[in-house]
Design goal:
With 278 residues, the protein is of the alpha+beta class. The protein has five helices and 17 strands. Strands 3, 4, 5, 6, 7, 8, 9, 10, 11 and 12 form a ten-stranded mixed beta sheet that branches. Helix 2 crosses helix 4 and helix 2 crosses helix 5.
Length: 278
């Protein structure tokens, strides 16, 4: 079946086939003229499609109507029913390997800033979650391949709970997450939301390409959930308790523990518990 979609001034009607064997619509972009996109009505995960085209695209947003096996951090499943914004951005950029951890923070910033403009009390929960009033509303997942000369091929996967109710999610998730529809009481234009996020993300990519990570650090710390509060970081190497002080120069989480300053990297973190909320 051919999927035809209208995106403001842009019209998409031609087809392609990807490795997953699912038919999709392909087109130029939304109003965001520098980003190509691919729309899939249903897929296992946009990350799977993105990996198949990772080194053949410089900037491509793959959007799904819904996912049957959405991929979360550390291989967890991400529930992705119809009505959410589920996309993976394939990006080729020139940044040093040391800056790669900031890609997730840059996208998280972009999502939070847009959600706040919509009237949501959104915060970044390090390393890759966005919460509203303490409940998860979005997540970011990054996969990268680094070539020589600081050329990075990245996939930034994003899931946002937008236009559906909590009852559309598995029962075990309903107490810990929230959707935009539940909070605002009305639906948003999903494609407009995507467009706004990509515009914000472009600004932060330009900052990273100029090697100005400190700008990202300062912005994240302004929106960091749990900053100044007692947290417990459960890591592969053990459990660490302390006051969340901020973000380190490598994008790590900085805790003030009884034994001094401890930096936690995102690769070793299994879970971050915040003892009290904003």
């Amino acid at each position: 079946m051919k999927h035809v979609i209208y995106l403001r001034r842009y019209y998409i009607s031609w087809m392609m086939k990807v490795k997953s064997g699912e038919y999709v619509s392909e087109g130029s972009s939304l109003t965001h003229s520098l980003t190509d996109f691919l729309y899939v009505r249903k897929t296992r995960s946009t990350m799977i499609i993105a990996r198949s085209v990772m080194k053949r695209s410089e900037k491509l947003a793959i959007i799904a109507g819904y996912q049957t096996s959405g991929i979360g951090r550390r291989g967890r499943t991400w529930a992705s029913p119809p009505g959410g914004l589920w996309f993976s951005l394939v990006l080729k950029t020139c940044i040093p390997a040391s800056v790669v951890p900031f890609l997730s923070l840059a996208m998280s910033l972009s999502v939070v800033e847009v959600l706040r403009l919509k009237g949501l009390n959104a915060w970044i929960k390090w390393p890759n979650d966005i919460v509203v009033d303490g409940k998860k509303i979005s997540g970011v997942l990054v996969d990268v391949k680094i070539d020589s000369d600081d050329v990075v091929h990245a996939i930034i996967g994003v899931g946002i709970n937008v236009n559906f109710y909590l009852r559309d999610l598995p029962a075990d998730l309903q107490d810990s997450v929230v959707t935009i529809l539940e909070v605002l009481g009305y639906k948003l234009d999903i494609l407009e939301l995507l467009d706004e996020i990509l515009r914000e993300f472009d600004k932060y990519i330009a900052i990273l390409e100029r090697r100005k990570e400190q700008v990202i650090i300062e912005k994240v710390e302004e929106m960091l959930y749990g900053k100044g509060q007692k947290v417990v970081a459960i890591c592969e190497t053990g459990k660490f308790s302390g006051i969340l002080k901020g973000i380190g120069q490598t994008g790590s989480l900085v805790l003030e523990t009884e034994n001094g300053i401890k930096e936690i990297d995102s690769f070793s973190l299994e879970k971050l518990l915040i003892e009290s909320s904003k």
